[in-house]
Amino acid sequence: MPIKKSAWKALRQSEKKAVRNIRLKKKIKELVKDSQKLIGIKEKTAVDKVKDAIKAIDKAVQKKIVKKNFGARKKSRLMKKLNLVK
Question: In terms of CB atoms within 10 Å, which end of the chain has fewer, N or C?
């Protein structure tokens, strides 16, 4: 456990960041899963859902919550599936 006041503050900050990061990663996972499901049933709203997923992935990469290659791989696979349906 931290002893100094600044260490306690750093602990609080890291806990908040961890919660925020987990929430964002979960959101990305749900968006990707939903868009893949819509692509699978060839729904017209799949394009919008894919755009939302890509936007969330880009924001997470920009904030360094997920790695750059992870974001590129997810976006590439989503677009590949979407283009196969079109």
Answer: N
